[in-house]
Design goal:
single chain, mainly beta, 37 strands, globular
């Protein structure tokens, strides 16, 4: 255990942030440096992250791996910079990148997961010291394929989410279904955030079938507080209608923004009436390709294809006044780099990646309130992957496993979590798990400590704990997840997470509709709260 009177982290070689000129070369240590001899050995290279090209994401192949069961309910942590190397421990094989969970069989001696327990059964199996929990099961038929589970919204005392044709609200206190809306066709896109008063527009397919060429062009407004449907309109803009096979959306206050193909347009949330189109620039070479919202801010990203040589192209992000379209500021990436994923809207923090090495070469950039470059830094030397290994795929928000809170940029991922200073890009502190577990920072505590979720293993539950700069050995467990739900928690690996009023809500990002191809039944939603 570290000396409580001494800093536990001994800085290695300094980071090489890029102040001032955003187009200057970015240095920094190579991946793998600065953390030698601590925690588990460096795993083999993972499957390359997903990247966005043209109209839509290229999804990395999902490889099913056999995982070693690790017994016990408390998992050792080590901090970076300790003098004594970690003791050898049993390890799980590394998991692949990508948001779709690999297929798995129950651990040896584990439960047959054909039956998802009720919340009442979970409560009956709860052991002393374990948190309260609820589990939601949705038996609605879905196609025999991998179906996307869309953004998780917390509205009032409910958690709301869309899967296939159904939008469902679950009560946060006990997981009971409050309301559901069944739509005529499958939901194909949702914005990351609703309006401040809980309204959202979901995009659904043009036809009820599941065939190729079924466009994502039907807009349906829903009040997430009541489940009542509002206006419905077709996304009918000039140009190639095939551009609506994939769309991206965002909500900024009472404005809806939609990007498709090489154009973006905004609508009033109140009635769906069109406001304005976001123009291309440089005679069409810089075309809008994605949008991001939250509160009353609107960001629009563009790819600037000025050359056939990818090393000559670059990315751009603009902040627009959501109601008028007036450009408040613009920022362009270094030549040869593109915008990746948005980590934070306020302050604006995002990833960029190298056009010529999209799988491995990425950075984090911070802007000031006026869109001026503050700092760019390289988190690869501490072993972090972009968006916790999920990469830049689909919408630019959210960036899974990364967040900004109370002056900290918090990064998570496989076996590690760490904090960087948002103003300087300096690495402050971090910890590594002695097992191959996913670690996610849920929020900052007093600007120093972090509340961390450690995901479940094949037969062991996850946990939620507090950790601060004093390092490993000083963590405080705040929620002991019940063993009775561990198997279903594990199935939600790399899923959506939300933390609100001391309650953690988890869902998968994808669900299979072919029960014959999976030895387990997937739960719809899972939640934990500290024991009363």
């Amino acid at each position: 255990m570290p000396d409580p009177q001494q800093p536990w982290y001994t800085p290695g070689p300094p980071q090489q942030p890029v102040p001032g000129n955003p187009y200057a070369s970015e240095g920094g240590a190579q991946p793998g440096s600065g953390a030698q001899g601590f925690g588990p050995p460096t795993p083999p290279p993972p499957t390359p992250p997903r990247r966005r090209f043209g109209r839509g994401p290229v999804v990395a192949a999902v490889v099913a791996l056999v995982l070693v069961v690790v017994a016990g309910g408390v998992y050792g942590l080590t901090d970076w910079g300790r003098e004594d190397p970690a003791k050898p421990v049993a390890k799980e094989s590394p998991r692949p990148s990508g948001s779709a969970s690999p297929s798995r069989t129950p651990g040896a001696g584990g439960p047959e997961l054909s039956h998802i327990p009720t919340t009442k059964e979970v409560a009956a199996a709860r052991k002393p010291g374990e948190s309260s929990a609820w589990i939601a099961d949705d038996r609605t038929d879905i196609p025999k394929q991998i179906n996307k589970v869309h953004d998780l919204w917390i509205v009032g005392d409910t958690a709301v989410q869309a899967l296939y044709r159904k939008v469902t609200a679950y009560r946060l206190s006990d997981g009971a279904e409050v309301w559901s809306v069944t739509l005529p066709s499958a939901v194909c896109e949702t914005p990351a955030n609703p309006t401040p008063d809980g309204k959202v527009v979901v995009f659904r397919k043009e036809r009820p079938d599941n065939e190729r060429g079924n466009r994502c062009n039907q807009m349906q407004m829903i009040d997430l507080r009541t489940g009542k449907q509002g206006w419905h309109k077709k996304l009918d803009e000039p140009g190639d209608e095939d551009d609506t096979l994939i769309v991206y959306s965002a909500i900024s206050g009472d404005v809806l923004s939609v990007a498709r193909g090489q154009r973006a347009v905004t609508y009033r949330m109140g009635d769906g009436s069109k406001l304005y189109e976001v123009p291309s620039e440089k005679k069409g070479a810089c075309f809008p390709d994605d949008v991001a919202g939250g509160a009353a801010r609107l960001l629009v990203t563009s790819e600037c294809m000025v050359s056939v040589d990818p090393g000559e192209n670059y990315g751009q992000v603009r902040e627009l006044d959501p109601r008028t379209g007036k450009i408040l500021w613009r920022y362009r990436t270094k030549t040869g780099w593109r915008f990746g994923s948005l980590i934070s809207m306020d302050p604006v923090v995002f990833t960029t990646f190298n056009n010529e090495d999209t799988a491995n070469d990425w950075r984090i950039t911070v802007l000031d309130p006026k869109g001026k470059h503050r700092v760019t830094f390289d988190a690869r030397d501490k072993g972090f992957e972009e968006c916790a290994g999920d990469g830049s795929g689909g919408n630019i928000q959210p960036c899974r496993g990364a967040s900004v809170d109370k002056g900290l940029i918090m990064l998570g991922g496989q076996s590690q979590v760490g904090a960087y200073d948002v103003k300087s890009g300096k690495f402050l502190w971090g910890i590594k798990s002695e097992e191959m577990r996913m670690l996610y920072a849920l929020r900052a505590e007093d600007g120093k400590a972090m509340r961390i979720y450690e995901a479940a293993g094949p037969s062991t539950p996850g946990r939620t704990f507090l950790m601060g700069p004093r390092g490993a050995g000083t963590e405080t467990e705040v929620v002991k997840h019940p063993k009775a739900t561990a198997a279903w928690e594990y199935e939600m690996f790399m899923g959506h997470t939300a933390y609100v009023d001391g309650r953690l809500v988890l869902t998968s990002t994808h669900m299979s509709g072919d029960e014959n191809q999976k030895p387990v039944r997937e739960a719809r939603m899972l939640s934990f709260a500290a024991s009363p």
